[in-house]
Amino acid sequence: MGLTAEKRSADWLAQGGLRPTRQRLALAGLLVGDGEDRHVTAEGLFAAASDAGEKVSLATVYNTLRAFCEAGLMSEVVVDGSKSYFDTRMDDHPHFFWEDSATLTDAPKDELKITGLPMAPDGTEIAKVDVVIRLRRK
């Protein structure tokens, strides 16, 4: 028997040590309630919440997504230094950015080979490498 959306959402919040407030549970349900990974923008999640009848402000959506990231439940992928996407899949993996629809999807991890990185400057270490492959239709 599978997990219900409510149980999956509550368990997800508990993994990050977050208190299951009504708004967090509602947004978590939209993000992980069906067990699928997703890439969302704050505006897209706000629209989905509104469509679902949830009373939540865009500022609350932004704050909640940041809290989910800080709790290690999601990661933020920045495209063009200005557009943020939030990813529920937490393993290291590359992304495709579809320019025509401004959407982000997972790219095949096993097909990516990084054979070398530049040395980090003295006193620093590489924390993470983000790979975003931009696609445009021919």
From TrEMBL:
InterPro entries: FUR, WH-like_DNA-bd_sf, WH_DNA-bd_sf
Species whose genome carries this gene: Pseudogemmobacter lacusdianii
Subunit organization: Homodimer.
Pfam families to which the protein is assigned, alphabetical: FUR
UniProt subcellular location: Cytoplasm
Family membership: Belongs to the Fur family.
Keywords: Cytoplasm, DNA-binding, Iron, Metal-binding, Repressor, Transcription, Transcription regulation, Zinc
CDD domains: Fur_like
Protein name: Ferric uptake regulation protein
Domain of life: Bacteria
Name of encoding gene: fur
